[in-house]
Write a structure and sequence with these properties.
- The complex is a heterodimer of chains A (279) and B (300).
- Chain A has 279 residues and is mainly alpha-helical.
- In chain A, 76% of the residues lie in helices and 0% in strands.
- The N and C termini of chain A lie far apart (47 Å).
- In chain B, 77% of the residues lie in helices and 1% in strands.
- The chains are: A mainly alpha (279), B mainly alpha (300).
- At the A-B interface, helix 1, helix 3, helix 4, helix 5 and helix 6 of A face helix 1, helix 3, helix 4, helix 5 and helix 6 of B.
């Protein structure tokens, strides 16, 4: 009887694991099957022409470039903020102090705030400052979204840095700030992982950029002008009644999925590197 | 001597700069709350809050703002998502942490990472391609006369897949926090592996599991694009799970263009953002506190 119950549950567990695995494969399979036939070289090398949204010539290069610019800007800003914060709560003050745990706790909460709220908040701030929907607005909103991710994932590796590593330079007469150079070198793979995680999250999020970055059919390099993004390109094209345009949405979804897969595999690569170098 | 002074000055500046940044980040949470509150203030001032929460008329251009449809839709979709996701993620999580070999873990962890890394808009595309037709052609005809497939159920299924990796990774951590001695003690008393899981591991980790579910609920509350794409967005109370619905985040996302047209309308939309914000902050704070306590208790 006891053995039977165990066996039943074990089978259930294996089934549910297999279900989860096959759901993932199914999602990838559907995206590839629907996206691949419409994925042409024009899609990734041209910007939309006049009749693009009626099914004519053009591609979504504007959205690809826009997404890359947006994510580059926001990762730059959020690294400049998250890295000092994570180092501060781990190395400049006692990492188990009350202040450190309050900071951690509030980043955990910020982490859970949905992107639509960040989008709405960013939009309100932009109205207040008199900025219209623009690349800069998108960069600010996406930075807000990914800063908590970066702080918490850098923090996770920073906790494991051995005390000796900080004490050795200190005893040689380095200031605490100077010891951070040693620390940063030690956790570099962890920082890379954090950046990649943030890139993956930021590049795929539609709700934040919906309000803040706007949309445009041309490639835009100026931060004061609206910029197209991949998730919105998918979203807008899918809501078109014209089949040709919908097919392009599937192709765009495939492009985004490929980008995410590449990022995910690189994250794993750097993650493994980190666990090997762990002291 | 001068060089040392310079270095110490640099240290001082860096220290203050970093502290400043940290405090700045701490205040963001309050700033977001305050901005949303001030923008939503007209709702508190001019409207009967009871009516706002418990009526379903949504006619912005006539000054009618009843949130019941949106609140009801959000709750419904979330409930279905948890109902589907919880058994699967719990069983998988137990399997991964108690039964599986490290080789299976090596295959499985990347899959969970991948699932959690897939952008919402991709889930939305997948949902419109597979879940929506599945409901309208295969499932709904057995229960109701007609369904477009864009429904509460579709939103729930898509959300369930999106929150599964979250629940699995948190419960995995909770199980890992429970020390091995407790399991070994149970085995040595003659309990089987499953009995140990059921009576010791699950019982000990119950607070953690609840916290994980609460976190998943708050994630589901706020999810926008994927749900918006599959749930139909009709401002009418859904009569069954095969009817279209209209969750709160979708309301905000769909109307941002018109937001500036009426100050009252803008206030109502910001009120919904505030509502989401408050619920999610409370849920997150509560479950994080529990999770921190769980991991701290077994740390020594």
């Amino acid at each position: 009887m006891r053995k039977l119950e165990e066996r039943i549950f074990k089978v259930l567990m294996i089934i549910s694991s297999l279900v989860i695995m096959s759901v993932l494969l199914y999602i990838l399979w559907i995206i590839i099957r629907r996206g691949l036939p419409s994925l042409t070289w024009d899609m990734v090398s041209k910007v939309p022409s006049g009749g693009f949204y009626l099914g004519k010539e053009g591609g979504i290069l504007n959205a690809i470039v826009g997404s890359l610019y947006l994510i580059f800007g926001s990762v730059l800003i959020s690294t400049l903020i998250s890295l000092p914060v994570a180092l501060y709560i781990n190395f400049l003050i006692n990492k188990k102090s009350r202040f450190s745990s309050i900071v951690r706790f509030s980043f955990d909460i910020l982490f859970g705030i949905p992107s639509i709220v960040y989008g709405a908040f960013g939009f309100m701030v932009m109205i207040y400052l008199g900025i219209q929907a623009s690349l800069l607005g998108g960069i600010i909103a996406v930075s807000l979204l990914i800063i908590p991710i970066m702080v918490r994932s850098i923090d996770e590796v920073a906790v494991y840095v051995p005390k000796d590593l900080i004490e050795a330079p200190l005893s040689l007469g380095a200031t605490k700030f100077e010891t951070l150079k040693v620390v940063v070198r030690q956790i570099l793979p962890g920082i890379t992982t954090a950046i990649l995680l943030a890139v993956g999250r930021g590049i795929g999020d539609a709700a934040t950029v919906l309000f803040t970055a706007g949309y445009t059919d041309s490639i835009n390099l100026s931060p004061a002008q609206p910029a197209a993004t991949l998730p919105l390109a998918i979203f807008f094209q899918l809501s078109s009644p014209i089949e040709e345009v919908q097919n392009r949405a599937y192709a765009a979804a495939l492009i985004l999925t490929i980008i995410i897969l590449v990022i995910s595999f690189s994250t794993r690569y750097f993650g493994n590197k980190l666990s090997k170098s762990k002291v | 001597m001068r060089r040392l002074k310079y270095r110490l000055l640099k240290e001082k500046i860096a220290r203050h700069y970093m502290l400043g940044l940290t405090i700045l980040c701490l205040t963001i949470l309050f700033v977001i709350g305050l901005v949303l509150l001030s923008k939503a203030f007209p709702v508190f001032r001019d409207k009967d809050l009871f009516k706002v929460f418990f009526t379903s008329g949504w006619r912005p251009f006539k000054g009618e703002y009843g949130f019941l449809t949106f609140i009801f839709s959000t709750l419904n979709v979330t409930f279905i998502a948890i109902l589907i996701a919880l058994p699967f993620s719990l069983l998988t999580s137990i399997y991964l942490s108690e039964y599986s070999t490290s080789r299976i873990k090596r295959i499985f962890n990347p899959i969970i990472d991948l699932l959690s890394g897939i952008p919402p808009v991709i889930y939305g595309v997948w949902g419109t391609l597979t879940v929506v037709p599945l409901i309208s052609e295969k499932i709904a005809p057995h229960f109701v006369d007609f369904s477009t497939g864009y429904s509460v159920l579709a939103g729930g299924i898509v959300l369930a897949i999106m929150i599964t990796p979250l629940i699995i990774s948190i419960t995995n951590e909770v199980f890992a926090a429970i020390p091995k001695d407790i399991r070994e003690a149970s085995w040595s008393l003659g309990a089987t592996k499953w009995e140990t899981v059921k009576k010791v591991v699950l019982r000990k980790s119950l607070p953690g599991i609840i916290a994980a579910v609460v976190l998943a609920i708050s994630r589901a509350f706020g999810e926008t694009i994927a749900v918006l794409m599959v749930c139909g967005n009709v401002t009418e109370l859904p009569a069954s799970i095969f009817d279209s619905c209209y969750p709160l985040p979708a309301l905000i996302a769909n109307n941002y263009g018109e937001m500036m047209s009426l100050p009252e309308y803008e206030a109502a939309l910001m009120f919904s953002a505030l509502l989401l914000f408050i619920i999610i902050v409370i849920f997150n704070a509560g479950s994080r506190l529990i999770l921190n306590r769980v991991s701290k208790r077994y740390q020594q």
